[in-house]
Amino acid sequence: MSTTAMAAGSLDAVFGALADPIRRGILDRLSGGEATVAELTAPFGVSQPAISRHLKVLERAGLITRTRRATARLSHLEAEPLRAAATWLVGYREYWDESYDRLDELLAGLQDGKADRSPPGDPTGRSTS
Amino acid sequence: MTEPEITAEPGTTQIIITREFDAPPEQVLRAHTDPDLVTRWLGPRAYEMKLDQWDVRDGGRWRYIHQDDQGNEFGFHGVFHGEPSLDTFVQTFEFEGYPGHVSLNTATFEDIGGGRTRLRANAVFQSAEDRDGMLASGMETGVSEGYERLDEVLAEIAR
Asked: What is the largest CA-CA distance in chain A?
């Protein structure tokens, strides 16, 4: 429960931050190394202030940190929140893939065990032997 | 093993999963409603599933928790709507790590002959952003190439 509650705020921010293609592009770029706002602006065809706003969202989500070097502000990718999101979001697809494979096995077991004429809700869960 | 077909059209708010099972519709439905069966298949094997509530009736509440091997817990809850039938098994669905973002999930169980069933699970989210947030790990179907890049980022980071 506490883990869930703790994850709540940060995951919310992470999902929100990931829901935008430009921000995902920025993360992609930063996975190749730190970059200045100008360097991050170039590939996206949007204004520098717009990129700065995106960087603020990413920073609030903990996905990047920013440091100042001389007059430039450098952005760095922070792996941990992404890893947390990835750990849960093993992938919607994998989640259902694996669940349904397990359901296949369960149903096969129920089919064999025509013995499974047990009353509905009977939790025997016995396997055929 | 059949692969589920997952559809998420860009700009829409829904995800549709279809999957065929080698069992009659009544049995596939029962695997969704009977709490003793649900815990035996729902969720990845790596997670331990704890069923907190599973009150399958109109207005009944459900809640379960997946726990990974590190002890991290991921809770989900919602409410069942209507009496479950082969034509419609309806529930709201909310990940407790993302509160206030609820999807409305409807499953149907179609008899396709030969003792087989086609399950169609439809999840409607509150916004396209919510749906895409849920899919942020990069489900391939119909999702923008931004996700493919994110996949790569995530894969790299996971190493």
From this structure: 77
Residue A44 within any structural domain of the chain: yes
Q: What is the ipTM of this complex?
A: 0.74
Cα–Cα dist B133/B130, whole Å: 5
Model pTM? 0.60
Q: Per-residue pLDDT tens for A30-58? A: 877 889 999 999 888 899 999 999 999 99
How far apart are the CA of A68 and the nearest CA of chain B, in angstroms? 25
CB contact under 8 A, B73 and A11: no
pLDDT digits (tens, 9 = 90+) for A15-25: 778 778 888 88
Q: Is A1 on the interface with B (CB under 8 A)?
A: yes
Residue B57 in tokens: 């009736």
Is B1 in Cβ contact with A1 (below 8 Å)? no
Residue of chain B minimizing CA distance to A17: B133
What is the fold of B5-127? Alpha-D-Glucose-1,6-Bisphosphate; Chain A, domain 4 (3.30.530)
Return d(Cα A95, Cα B137) in angstroms, integer: 11
- Cβ distance of B150 and A28 shorter than 8 Å: yes
